[in-house]
Amino acid sequence: MDTSSGTPHRLDPAGGCPHVDNARLLARGGVAPVVLPGDVEGMAVLGHDALKEFLAHPDVAKGARHFTALREGRITPGWPLTTFATVRGMTTADGDDHRRLRSLVSKAFTARRVERMRPWIEELTEGLLDDLERAARDGGGVADLRRHFALPLPMGVIGELLGVDAEYRDRLHHLSNQVVATDIGPEQALAANRELVGVLAAVAEARAQRPGDDLTSALIAARDEEGNRLGHEELIGTLVLMIIAGHETTLNLITNAVRALCGHRDQLDLVARGGAGWADVVEETLRWDAPVSYFPFRYPVRDMTLDGTVIPAGTPVLAGYSAAGRDRDAHGPDADRFDVTRPGRADAARHLSLGHGAHYCLGAPLARMEATIALERLFARFPRLDLAVREDELSRHASFVGNSVRELPVRLAPPSTTA
Predict the structure, then answer these.
(1) DSSP line for 109-131
(2) Which residues contact residue 30 at a Cβ distance below 8 angstroms, ignoring those fewer than 6 apart?
(3) 296 lies in a domain?
(4) For residue 231, which of 13, 105, 137, 366 sits 20 to 30 Å off, Cα-Cα?
(5) Does residue 66 lie within any of the structural domains?
(6) Strand pairing category for 294-300 and 317-320
(7) What pLDDT does residue 347 have?
């Protein structure tokens, strides 16, 4: 029995494209030992089948009390991944606590409520396309699609859903970006976390004073009217998680989909001809270039064997979504190929990029809707849109958690036809 799967892979805090390393690790097995920032030992589950089993395993917990190194005081203050382990909310809760928190939040993500947001999301999308066009005109034909379109769309949606006033949104994006970064120092990490909590406390106070038809107001009402079912730390922790998960993931999804289509014009042409749908593009992007690469953390509550590898109890384990999406054992020998007609595309379970089991992403239907609307409207308006630089010139996200690029400069039309 293998208890190590070879030399531990040292995760690069600066992030970068994960796919080469993923392929090398997958060739050795579905589970790999890793070294996290600060020389913290951990494991990553990379294989599709292994990850699916792990995510739903009854002996796997999310609560930080199961994190042995943290419990024993071996994690230094300002560790860049601390928030993922210690924030109070759904992603770090187990059992009854998880069910309680999830039930409170799930009311905002019912199919009916999500569908009711469609006309507003379509209107927001059209306005942002106007902004993108103006930015390109002012920029000599080139604009950063990530900044002017892929970011403000999901931030606007999650801001509306949570009741976050527009004045806070840019700052919240900056701070959440620092929280998911893995290359920042302890002082910067601590400062970003403190400020993020402070801003969201101000948001909660504003909603307490002026309740509205939003999730924050509903959570405060649940806290105040139902015998403190939601404590203050849990309220702020839930807002932290919602802000990060509610826009960073969709931001990366839209960005990665546009990159994929620009790099595979045959696939874009196929969709334009009606040979596949925009929902197919979203699903294939989720599989082929998952917006989250390695998500922290889960902990076995006892030693467990997965894909022939022993994971000791209390080990911090990363869910390797970007690796699982290109696992050839699950997706065939052409798993590295972007193909919107890939068999089984109608089955949302063909990839794990939005999770699996009890912690499956509550916002998945909303993220899918946002991305589908965004891509359809973007390419309907700018069918000849293309990258303004080569793919290998794009600067990668400074994180091994988020998987995307920092900017996405595009031309909305070939230079000869740009106004």
Answers:
(1) G-HHHHHHTHHHHHHHHHHHHHH
(2) 45, 46, 47, 48, 49, 50, 51, 306, 307, 309, 327
(3) yes
(4) 366
(5) yes
(6) antiparallel
(7) 44
Q: What are φ and ψ of residue 167, in 5° steps?
A: -65, -20
| In-domain check, residue 284 | yes
Q: How many C-beta neighbours within 10 Å does residue 390 have?
A: 8
Closest CA to 320 of 211, 400, 264: 400
Domain count for the chain, please give it: 1
Q: Which domain holds residue 106?
A: 9-417
* CATH code for the domain of 337: 1.10.630.10
416: which 2 tokens?
A: 């000869």
What is the per-residue pLDDT for 174? 85
pLDDT tens digit string along 200-211?
A: 899 999 998 999
To the question of pTM greater than 0.85 for the whole model, the response is yes
- The secondary element (H helix, E strand) that includes residue 209 is helix 186-209
Q: For residue 417, is pLDDT > 70?
A: no
The one-character DSSP state at 147 is I
Is 145 inside any structural domain? yes
